[in-house]
Amino acid sequence: MNKDQIKGTAKDIAGKTQQGAGKLVGSKEQQAKGLKKQVAGKLQKNVGDVKEAIKDTNKHKH
Q: Where is composition skewed (Basic and acidic residues) in this entry (predicted)?
């Protein structure tokens, strides 16, 4: 795993927590912020996944 995969997963989890807390207290704003953080985390993890795939492909070419 690379840093983008780790940080992305952490953001996704934090976003889910924030969204859940927002639901619990009835805050649409916190729910929206949580969803935004989840999307950012998923995107960052996907960037990390692509980097790993490229790295693996390059290893197999040599």
A: 1-14
